[in-house]
Amino acid sequence: MYLVESKGGAIACMLLALFFLGTWPAVLTRLERRGRLPQHTYLDYTITNLLAAVIIAFTFGQIHKGTHEAPNFLEQLSQDNFPSVGFAMIGGIVLSLGNLATQYAWAFVGLSVTEVVTSSITVVIGTTVNYFLDGKINKAEILFPGVGCFLIAVCLGSAVHASNAADNRAKLNALSKMNEVEAGNGLVPSLNGAYVNEGGLKDVERGSRPEEKAKPGTADFLVQLENRRSIKVFGKSTVIGLGITFFAGFCFSLFTPAFNLATNDQWHTLKKGVPHLSVYTAFFYFSLSCFFVALVLNISFLYRPVLNLPKTTFKAYINDWNGRGWALLAGLLCGFGNGLQFMGGQAAGYAAADSVQALPLVSTFWGILLFGEYRKSSKRTYILLIGMLSMFIVAVGVLMASAGHRK
Question: What do the Gene Ontology cellular component annotations say (predicted)?
């Protein structure tokens, strides 16, 4: 079994995890905006997410011959370590629920704000719990100011969303006023000011003419995006999106403390003489429970969808190859990202490993580059966005500086 033992190795794992964990949400968001049903996407994602854990277990977990104190992956599968396995599986369950919630939150509040808010909640709650579970090996005088900065980032993230939503409403209202003449042709205004007909949303700027690709940040771009995407958000309260986002953040705040308990047994639940679960064995059970929860919920969502999504079937999912490769890639990125985070956390403390929650920095980059988020927004939105990201960078730097060393 290979173990990361140095602080430098732990930081390297965290940085690589940061890139992976910040990129996979952008991949799933891209598929939703192209119209692929999230039930189909998440079923593909969860398969390769489990595959990543299996690969890690049979490589890093088997790379050397195990000892009694540090058995390898296969040896631990037959040991009497059920309490630790239970904690690992609880962590997988809450992570699965959080990931499932975020794929709907992205549609309502955007990739950038969703990742900032959920990550900040994760740090505020999860890092505090991990600090005490790890026996205070991280420097409290550095760690908790960093946690405070994350809390400020939550408030700024909510303000960015509110400001950007107001900008979008203003764009749509301006567009509807320019096309009031269309109201006499059977179109009626929707809740947000855009015009719709009995068949749903209509491109009010072009009427029945062929649709041209609109520039990101324009009202026409927002309408075209609504026509393509699988989750319709026009006319729905922003409270729904923020509610889903905060629920996801609460779930994310619990999975690293549960994993910490699985690998270090701070509550002394294992029988005397039974070795602690290795990171790789715990991650395998963690990913296994994550897989089964996602499988059960998403298959049920095929037939009983939420948020007015269309019904589908398992057969339709099997035959849906549009974007499947991207969904499978997202699962691998998330799986390897989580594995690297846990490897670094076992060496330097899970409180410091929560610094990978800097993933919104990566997600915001992808959101602006790929999806045109915040294009043509107001000056107020840009100021709030810069303030949010700046506070987030400071928070992550402070949190990384608190890294300790597990004996």
Answer: membrane
